Amino acid sequence: MTMRNKYRKPTTFHCNAGSRCSPSAVVWSLVGFLLFLHLYSLVSHNGGKGGDVQLHTSHHTLFRELEEVEEETIQIPPPKGKRSPRAAKRRPKRSTTLIDEFLDENSQLRHVFFPDMKTAIDPMNDSGNDSLNYFPGRIWFDTEGNPIQAHGGGILYDESSRTYYWYGEYKDGPTYHAHKKGAARVDIIGVGCYSSKDLWAWKNEGIVLEAEEANETCDLHKSNVLERPKVIYNEKTGKYVMWMHIDDGNYTKAAVGIAISDYPTGPFSYLHSKRPHGFDSRDMTIFKDDDGVAYIIYSSEDNSELHIGPLTEDYLDVTHVVRRILIGQHREAPALFKYQGTYYMITSGCTGWAPNEALAHAAESIMGPWETMGNPCIGGNKMFRQTTFFAQGTYVFPLSGLPGSFIFIADRWNPADLRDSRYVWLPLIVGGPADRPLDYDFGFPVWSRVSIYWHRKWRLPSGWRGLK
Ligand code: GAL
Hints:
By secondary structure, the protein is mostly beta strands. It has a single domain, classed as 5 Propeller (Tachylectin-2, Chain A), CATH 2.115.10.20. The chain has 6 helices and 27 strands. The protein has helices at residues 23-47, 51-62, 85-90, 98-103, 110-113, 382-386, and strands spanning 2-3, 69-70, 133-134, 151-158, 163-170, 176-177, 184-185, 190-196, 203-210, 225-234, 239-247, 255-261, 269-274, 284-288, 294-300, 305-310, 323-325, 332-339, 342-348, 359-363, 371-374, 377-378, 392-398, 405-412, 422-433, 448-453, 458-459. The strands form 8 sheets. A 5-stranded mixed β-sheet has the order 22-26-25-24-23. β18 and β19 form a beta hairpin. Mean pLDDT is 86; it is low at 1-21 and 36-58. The site of beta-D-galactopyranose has 11 residues, from β10 and β18.
């Protein structure tokens, strides 16, 4: 079901005093206005000049449908089997929630969260009108017809080859528990890399950083953990630099790993791991600012806070500068982005593979102070919003040419079979007033709202690539 966005200002039609506007007149004026806008955007596309007007018009019209609020109504199936009256007395029935259903591998709703192969997104066999459409949660084939393996990933736009590269955990192996209380895991296979010209059809470029089979002392030994790899390009050295979370099977090493390559498609040479600034570090990301300075952001002090600090000029190490942020807030899976000089970040709570509520944060300086703005999710239903659409963020990718528009990239983890974890890509828009007035601004929010809109199916506006 689709309805108007309650976060957008209502549109009012003004009639001359004394006159009455019939509904059909209003509708026809609207149609006329839309036609005018459409023609205008065509003319400005072809004309090629007057970039500002073109940008404004395109953003306004092309993104409107992505800001529609799409509701989900999912019926929770009745409990299986009858309970004996005695059992009912002993333990009163707790009503099943959608999250219980999500976590139950045998749920009748399994297909809602993990649709089967038949519905897979297949760029090479796209018979209907699904071309370039994202379907959050569906299996997504690469150009060879295999499910994409790039979990906990990030995207690099490579200027020299004008190509997008998607790097992530290649998890195409069996899921198991190393011991009873351990988290579900897949042995390290490596970092997968996919390339694309349109952010939709992805070619498998292979495993660009491979696991080590034999040497147990190596960080990349298959029994260890390699998560959330991110790659940035260093203009000064001409190198592609990868940072990742490196851990042992029990998550006690809590370190970052660094690898380097001359090419976006690798192979990457693994340099070493370290505890950044001497602190424990688990979920992490890196962010390259407009001035070329790159930063690392990682969950630390047993995930109770985040740390942020600039990297060295060659991006191969941290400097001595570091700030503790969001102290005591227990956030992880940071994904940082910037708009109009303000820094934003989406984080998740700390519940392992189980989904939880995302929060948006903002800061005027990347080193803080950072303020928490609230849950950015819009649409779906309450449970969708409280679970980040049953997913956990990993990256926010800016759509160049469409200021304020981003793609929020998240993982819908499947702890029963991690290789079958899905991707949730959704439009993220920065605009409108923030929900909560911020502490030190006397109630005047200086930051815009960050909104991630749920859609079962959506696509990037067709004109956006021409706007670069
Ligand atoms: C999550 C984390 C994932 C992975 C998982 C293991 O909290 O974001 O990257 O480490 O825990 O349980």
